[in-house]
Amino acid sequence: MQEDFLHYIWQYQKLTTSRLKTVQGHKIQVVSVGELNTNSGPDFYNSRIVIGIQEWVGTVEVHLKASDWVIHKHQGDSAYDNVILHVVWENDVAIFDSNQNKLETIVLKGLVDESLLLSYKSLLQKKKWINCENQIHTIDEFTLSFWKEKLLIKRLQRKANEMQSLLLSSKNNWEVLLFQLLAKNFGLKINASEFQLLAQNISFEVFKKELSSQFNLEGLLFGQSNLLEEFIEDSYFQNMRKEYLYLKQKYQLDDSLVKLQFFRLRPVSFPTIRLSQLSVLYFSQKSLFSKVIEVKTMSSIYELFSVSASEYWDDHYTFGKSSAKRKKQLSKSFINLLVLNTIIPLKFMYAKSVGKDNFEELLQLYKSIKSEKNSILTKFKELKLKTESSADSQSLIELKTEYCNQEKCLQCEIGNKLLYHS
Q1: pLDDT per residue over 312-325, tens digit each?
Q2: By Cβ atoms counted within 10 A, which residue in 11, 154, 165, 224 is the most buried?
């Protein structure tokens, strides 16, 4: 048994309340269970409980065994001085508060319906993929829709929290944050960290000074990526290398950090193509951050990001090696990934910072993008869960990675529903 199951029992009072007594023999009446605390400190705050004839307001601590109080060293922690009730599954030792008074304790064992215990054991019994894989198809559509929307908000908040450290390191410069996030996404999975390092290694002030020349922007990105080191018999390469060496000296640049990979990438996704597309994007779309924040529809986003690599790359994938002529334009599927991984989380984060709620606007963007295709979504489809748009797919990915994989069934609306109807 896990402690969070006891939290569930207490929070939803899934016990025989008519028989509630402390081990000291005092009758219990729960006026309010309190608020579940997910941080450090007692498990429930602002609880109101009548013990005997006295009503108390304070905190409630929950443990599997009473002795866990001592094991966790709560007896010497002032944060637990306001505990008015100790809720345990087994009362193996007497526990005393900071004034050496016996702590009022109730024992849940024997107060919980056997069917709930069986449902809990069944839910937490490890299955092949997720714990509720044999039952999830029974969940009603209203519960699923409600939970998926909450998961989407949680995913946005989590991504915003991850971005916060980047924003702080950039001295709260939103333009710099966007540049770093876009760079990371242009690098795809294989080069994501190196592209992000590249963006962090180039002063954005230096980058902005060269916005008037797409060739210079491209040269900066290629040079800082160590793609201009060797000598190649190609006039475009030689001119770019010459320009970069001038910029390197002018701005005292360090180009020793980034090491890009071409291995296991389709030619259209080579770093050369992605870096050129990124340089063209910033050259053609001045004040990009403001435009990203203002844009509200996918059609406008497709238009904003409708860029191709520079002309040289029409018949090249690497320097000095000609290929069949083909315009290297950002595809809609690639732009969709930028929207899901960068634009929507950034817009959500920025709106929060200025005290606005733009979730409905972002929800429409999610619904305008088709569901992604990956192994997680394929498996959910086999379990009869629909994924009609990225609003569905993103929420289900969040469900699998942040709840199912971590066995947080009791913090999940689906798990709660299955237990509630036990």
Answers
A1: 999 999 999 999 99
A2: 224
